[in-house]
Amino acid sequence: MSDAPFVPLGFERLDPETMLARARAFAETAERRRSVRAFSSDPIPMSVVDECIRAAGTAPSGAHKQPWTFAVVTDPDIKRRVREAAEEEERENYGGRMNEEWLEDLRPFGTNAEKPFLEVAPALIVVFRHSWEDRGEGDRGQNYYTQESVGIASGMLLAALNAAGLATLTHTPSPMGFLGEVLGRPKNEKAFLLIPIGYPADDCQVPDLERKPLEDIVARY
Q: The whole model's pTM is what?
């Protein structure tokens, strides 16, 4: 017998028509999600951000360790420091770390080492992955499948923010060790993703892209 406490699931089984309507509505909302690099500086309701993070925190995780921290940054000085450090890493990336194929793949998007959106966006969320569990006094506990767990939580966060009406960008200025330093996070937390959030600027434009159709991304057996 397991010594873990169990409770009833409380699952609501829906009729197929309702299921399909909900699935289509969510897919249509997800279809409107785009990566935004031109943000308005207008303030956003932080209570909405809190609820989106609450949703992300329901993600499954290895052994239910919940190995994540969502650091919300709104302080202008800290955002400036994040931008300066990110741009320093990005100059290294565009100046030699990235190979020619990588740079060629990025060329249609017009990206470069300048990241003004990190200061303009009203908030940043830095997602940290707990590589181990800090129990205090040098005692380290194990965490499991942290990359997978935090990846799932990050996807749920992006979907929730999009559904709530906020624009986002997934920014990964690798290496990202500077984020833990700027924010003073403990050593067991490793930066996983940097997400500027806000409203798009009035003149915001995004690349004219086509997503792969369903049949190109599904393998049926």
A: 0.95
Parallel/antiparallel/unpaired status of strands 189-198 and 167-168 = antiparallel
pLDDT tens digits along 130-180: 999 988 888 999 999 999 999 999 999 999 999 999 999 999 978 899 999
Residue 39's CB is within 10 A of a number of other CB atoms, namely: 25
Spatial contact of 158 and 168, defined as CB atoms under 8 Å apart: yes
**Strand extents, DSSP E, the chain:** 68-73, 123-130, 133-134, 140-141, 167-168, 189-198
CATH topology assigned to domain 40-134+142-201: NADH Oxidase (3.40.109)
Cα dist from 12 to 6, 18, 19, 59, 60, whole Å: 18, 12, 11, 19, 19
How many helices, marked H, and strands, marked E, lie in the chain?
A: 8, 6
Residue from 105, 128, 111 nearest 195 by CA: 128
The first and second tokens of residue 67, run together, are 């190995």
Q: Which helix (H) or strand (E) holds 117?
A: helix 117-120
Integer Cα distance of 167 and 33 in angstroms: 8
